[in-house]
Design brief:
The protein folds into two domains: 36 residues, no CATH class; 187 residues, Rossmann fold. 31% of the residues lie in helices and 12% in strands. The two termini are 29 Å apart.
Length: 226
């Protein structure tokens, strides 16, 4: 097998228990050289709310969200946003290399096995972005791991999030509305909302708004990077 990012060969060494217990093998699509450029967020003195690294207590962005919501569930993410992650998303989203959706399959699958939710949904692309790319990057990133439900619709913004600075992101108006399927869910169910990158939290908190205002209180969020 070859690394989906750089093309180097990958050796998936089987563990003894995987052989004798007939455990399902979770393939790795990223080589050790590429993996060495990733910075796992776990135990990085993370913000207590959004998981950003090197934060004492709660970061300034999350203090804004706490003033609005009083109590919010902790966001979780796997990797720190660095140059490797930046280049990855440039190839994946801007240049449309959809095969890269599987690069972090093993990492996300491992997280999903340790974190269970009643309902898992995701941040959808707007129709214009999906037509432009030919695929929905967040859906492709998670669809083979979670049983996803499409519960939100996103309207076109005047400017893509990636082109906005921090202040513009925070001032972005609500871009989501709920689909009718949301009314068929029990308000007691736990909700997980998936995105690809967490920056200020504005996008995920607007999605959080939709569920909060619909009566859901157990709402969590997750992204590949923060």
């Amino acid at each position: 097998m070859k690394c989906l990012n750089c093309g180097n060969s990958i050796t998936n060494n089987l563990k003894i228990k995987e052989i004798f217990l007939f455990k399902k093998i979770i393939p790795d699509y990223i080589c050790q050289l590429c993996r060495s450029q990733l910075i796992p967020l776990k135990n990085k003195n993370n913000c207590l709310r959004c998981y950003k690294p090197n934060v004492s207590g709660i970061c300034s962005d999350c203090q804004i969200w706490e003033q609005k919501y009083q109590i919010i569930n902790c966001h979780q993410a796997l990797f720190e946003y660095n140059q490797f992650i930046h280049s990855y998303f440039k190839l994946y989203k801007r240049y449309g290399d959809v095969l890269l959706a599987k690069l972090f399959f093993k990492d996300i699958m491992s997280w999903s096995k340790q974190n269970q939710f009643d309902v898992v949904t995701y941040i959808p692309s707007s129709q214009s972005h999906q037509r432009l790319r030919g695929f929905d990057p967040v859906l492709e990133l998670y669809k083979d791991i979670f049983d996803l439900q499409l519960l939100l619709v996103k309207v076109d913004a005047d400017k893509p999030q990636a082109q906005k600075d921090r202040q513009e992101r925070l001032q972005t108006p609500q871009t989501f509305s709920a689909l009718p399927e949301i009314n068929r869910l029990s308000k007691n169910q736990s909700i997980l909302i998936l995105d690809d990158i967490y920056t200020t939290g504005r996008t995920l908190m607007y999605a959080h708004d939709i569920f909060w205002e619909s009566g859901f209180k157990n709402i969590s969020t997750f992204s590949l990077s923060s």
